[in-house]
């Protein structure tokens, strides 16, 4: 039974899948090492999830990608690698030090020309993108308290068919506990309620067990 699987087992499976399907990658490994050296929290996506983002971007034929939450650029590397030569990732990062580190990581990976990092609070930066070409894929991985607002902007800045991915929706199981009033949990639930009720979206969500623990992500399409 799944309930009998202990953490050592699923971590072993994750390590096996990562080694088999992702493998060693000097640019990604260097990005993670730089993040650790800079003291950034280990909250970048797990390797298997990074490749998931990469494949979704390729499958969707994305040419313009919006990322909300850059951190050290790990997921931006995965997304940028999925783009055609004239494609673009616009990634929003609130912390200038993180943005500087991400730019260095992207340049080291040879992808600096495909990624623009816009510095500032996402809710201040997102309105400045109005009027630009619509995004084909939006990846939301920032403060969970603002997920509902980020989803609203994803719909505004996208088009019918835009893919939207929201990370960290499981919150270690807390998302399904109505008595949990932590701001990140409440914000996550509010985002999921937008996906369930807003007619601009068709969505589902999956639980995950990977190197980052027990969590999940939502996948939606703008309709």
TrEMBL record:
Q: Keywords for this entry?
A: Methyltransferase, S-adenosyl-L-methionine, Transferase
Cleavable signal peptide: none
- Source domain of life is Bacteria
The biological processes this protein is annotated with in GO are: methylation
Which Gene3D superfamilies is this protein grouped with?
Vaccinia Virus protein VP39
Q: Which InterPro entries match?
A: Cation-dep_OMT, SAM-dependent_MTases_sf, SAM_O-MeTrfase
Q: State any single GO MF term.
A: S-adenosylmethionine-dependent methyltransferase activity
Q: Does the keyword Nucleotide-binding apply?
A: no
Q: What is the protein named?
A: Methyltransferase
* Protein's organism: Microbacterium aurantiacum
Q: What is the lineage of its organism?
A: Bacteria, Bacillati, Actinomycetota, Actinomycetes, Micrococcales
